[in-house]
Amino acid sequence: MATRILFVDDEAGIRKTLRIILEQHGFDVTTAATVPEALEHLNHATFDVLLSDLNIGQPGDGFTVVSAMRRVQPGAATFILTGYPDFDTALQAIRSQVDDYLLKPADVPTLISTIRGRLEHRQPMTPERPLKRVSELMQESLRAIMKEWLGLVKEHSELTDIPISDKDRVDHLPDVVKELARRVDILSDVTSAGAKTAAAKHGKERARQGYNIPLIVIEMRLLQRVLSYVLQRNLIRMDLSTVIGDMLQVGESLQEQLEFSIRGFQQGAREAA
What we know:
The chain is α/β, with parallel strands linked by helices. It has 13 helices and 5 strands.
């Protein structure tokens, strides 16, 4: 039986050309142009090999497909195509998940020999680390979240015009992240009373420090960006079946906490007037 390959790339020309080449060498090739299309294929058919571009629409999307393949079809060999030769260091960190990577444009003889070599000398898989929920990832990454968020804040001229210490800037973040994680863990649609109080207190403090409402909104938007960065870097460790729902819950919680911060700000501004 021919070796079955799932080839994922968002460039139509590459999909067509490489598929023909691989089929000429005896492989049975299925192609996908998007992550959802790839996930659909691997959930409904069996493959010996996954060959995925690193960036499918969004940077690093290929790792999402690799992670899903590792769980659904752990015996398949997985390969990433990348146009970035200096990406080697980052790939080493996930070597237990990706069998190998190939540079684009792919050299056909090297591609064929690499695939066949890996299939002939397939090593036993190391046990996968337990998959994580978004809530667990946020809590264990709190220090990194605070550091990256503060870095973005310091790059924003309007925010840095407010003369307060780094400690005063980040003091509210642990409470915010704790509430985000809580809502994800218990699938709650309601902000806790403690989180409402903490958000309002934060808003009043920002009023005292000289902020305005747009700046509070900017801070929350930067936090959402950092959370997205952290998630993207760790997709290969995540339970993909829960990621979308969890992130929707995170977004709702962020908006509600922002609402209570603004109310607190308005109350603080009235008290100061």
